[in-house]
Amino acid sequence: MFYAVTLLFLLLWGPYVVASYLRVLVRPGAVSQAYLTASVWLTFAQAGINPVVCFLFNRELRDCFRAQFPCRQSPQTTRATLPCDLKGVGL
Questions:
Q1: Would you state the pLDDT for residue 61?
Q2: pLDDT for position 57
Q3: 40: domain range?
Q4: What is the pLDDT of residue 18?
Q5: Please, are residues 68 and 40 in contact by the beta-carbon 8 Å criterion?
Q6: Is 85 domain-assigned?
Q7: Structural domain includes residue 50
Q8: Backbone angles phi, psi at 12, to 5 degrees
Q9: What is the pLDDT at residue 12?
Q10: What is the pLDDT along the chain (91 residues), one digit of tens a residue?
Q11: Which stretches of the chain are DSSP H helices?
Q12: Which of 87, 76, 82 lies closest to 62, judged by CA?
């Protein structure tokens, strides 16, 4: 999970960092407004994608989330059989 989050961070923040360095070191007009806008929106997307990636890679968190919805459980599965100690996942 750590590698996936780090890779996504680098991919989504990379264009913004490049645009910022070009604007400072080369000249302010070196980067088009469309590229700058798209790179800013990619940084916003990283904030939204990060929790999804953590949820997909963390089985304990998924199990706790499912335990909160008993209507989605099979009749054999009871709430006591699912681990749902949110203190264990850092919440």
A1: 82
A2: 86
A3: 1-68
A4: 92
A5: no
A6: no
A7: yes
A8: -85, -25
A9: 93
A10: 788 888 999 999 999 999 999 888 988 788 899 999 999 999 999 999 988 888 888 888 888 878 887 776 665 555 445 556 555 555 5
A11: 2-21, 33-57, 59-67
A12: 82
> What amino acid is encoded at 69 in this protein?
F
Structure tokens at 51: 């929790």
Pair of tokens at residue 30: 């070196």
Give Cα 35 distance to the centre of its chain: 22
Q: Report if residue 2 sits inside a domain.
A: yes
Query: Is-contact 45 12, C-beta < 8 A?
Result: yes
Q: Is residue 40 part of a domain?
A: yes
- Rounded Cα–Cα distance for residues 85 and 91 (Å): 9
Cβ-contact 85, 79 below 8 angstroms = no
Rounded to 5 degrees, what angle do the CA atoms 51, 83, 4 make? 30
